[in-house]
Amino acid sequence: MYKRIVLKLSGEALAGERGFGLNAEKVIETTAEIAELHALGVEVAVVVGGGNIFRGVAEHAKGMDRVSADNMGMLATIINAIALQDALEQHDVQCRVMTAVFMNQIAEPYIRRRAVRHLEKGRVVVFAAGIGNPFFSTDTAASLRAMEIKADVLLKGTKVDGVYSADPNLDATAVKYDQITYMEILGKGLKVMDLTAVSLCKDNNLPMVIFNMNQPGNIKRVVMGEKVGSLVTA
Ligand code: UDP
User: Fold this and answer.
1) What's residue 61's pLDDT?
2) Probe target for ligand 1 pocket from 23, 138, 145, 158, with the most ligand atoms within 8 Å of CB
3) CATH superfamily placement of domain 4-233
4) Per-residue pLDDT reduced to its tens digit, 179-218
5) Whose CB has fewer CB within 10 Å in the chain, the N or C terminal residue?
6) How many Å lie between the centroid of ligand 1 and the Cα of residue 136?
7) pLDDT one-digit tens code per residue, 39-55
């Protein structure tokens, strides 16, 4: 069983059927799975995306200055983080939101040592606002935070069962890799996570598991060491 994990949740994971915005039921369901891990004694840090609300590179940001658009994207992740915190507390799990863009009235500023202390005390930590800089993604934030807090693994929940040779929704010949190296992902340009995030994990030898979030119970299976999804290593 992994002891300390970083779970990257995309904004989409909180959107439900409509594909955008926040769906209260989806948020409760997702956080129920996090609460289950917490009950097992796993230290859980979540990095949440914002794509369900706003993405700097999205079509509707066209014509905007990239920095302005990305700032909006980072704010979107904070909205999601507060929703996660609220839902975790409904499951009786203590949670702290830490933001990379400081917003002290609403959440704590990200301070690495404090984040680690929260985890040691059994609180779930939600990292919001990515790394606090435009031109980055929350995938990269997840790799960075995982390294900083010395997580055992970075888990990335997606809509598909793992890493495929091509998009399985578009190409019937696509095959799934149970295990794959960082270099293969980078070399083949596989769209699993953004490439900055993958190279950061590679440089620091941080294992990643890419798995299907839409299958209930999968997060727990991965954490317990079952062969679910795709394992990415050196
Ligand atoms: N973002 C940013 N810097 C960061 C992380 C995120 O500027 O360090 C912005 C960027 O515009 C991004 C948006 O926040 O598109 C939402 O994050 P992301 O696209 O990673 O969310 P997800 O796809 O996981 O929902």
Assistant:
1) 85
2) 138
3) Acetylglutamate kinase-like (3.40.1160.10)
4) 999 999 999 999 889 999 999 999 999 999 999 999 999 9
5) C
6) 7
7) 999 999 999 999 999 99
**What's the mean pLDDT in 227-233?**
96
- Among 23, 55, 145, name the best residue to mutate to test ligand 1's pocket (greatest count of ligand atoms within 8 A of Cβ): 55
Token pair belonging to 153: 């693994």
Using a 6 Å cutoff on CB, does residue 78 contact ligand 1? no
